[in-house]
Specification:
elongated, mainly beta, 2 domains, 142 residues
Length: 142
């Protein structure tokens, strides 16, 4: 379980977001560690529960709420020969700008060099570059 703060209008169970690095004003805030430093920049998180604790915020007029989050699984494309459920790997893939499957080949929350574990294997993806790839659900490993 990871605790962080979100604007009150976004603090809802099931809400998904990509963690940022915070604004300039955030660094001066007494909640900086909880709000920003508890999360890894660029990673996707899902709100698992909302606590009934609110704080004022200089960035968000309505204030923020304390929430529990978990790091999200990620849908991605990998070469079929490496797609083995339960296996681990290091993400390193490329894609064309105009590729219709680019969201899987270069998904939010995943960068080249990230270690991952494959949770499940989905369908084959047609690749305009001729790569033999499949869609998988994966989770990041530390």
């Amino acid at each position: 379980m990871i605790l962080t703060l979100l604007p009150k209008n976004l603090a809802k169970s099931g809400f998904s977001f990509v963690a940022g690095k915070g604004d300039k004003e955030c660094k001066e805030c007494r909640f900086f560690k909880t709000c920003v430093e508890n999360l890894k920049e660029g990673r996707i998180y899902i709100v698992s529960s909302v606590r009934n604790i609110e704080h004022p915020c200089s960035i968000h007029d309505s204030g923020v709420k304390l929430v529990e989050v978990i790091e999200s699984s990620i849908e991605a494309a990998i070469p079929k020969k490496f797609a083995i459920e339960g296996s681990t790997g290091i993400f390193s893939f490329s894609c064309k700008e105009s590729c219709p499957s680019r969201d899987y080949c270069m998904p939010d929350g995943l960068i080249i060099g990230d270690k991952f574990e494959i949770l499940s294997i989905k369908e084959k993806i047609e690749c305009p570059l001729g790569h033999n790839i499949v869609r998988v659900t994966l989770k990041l490993k530390d």
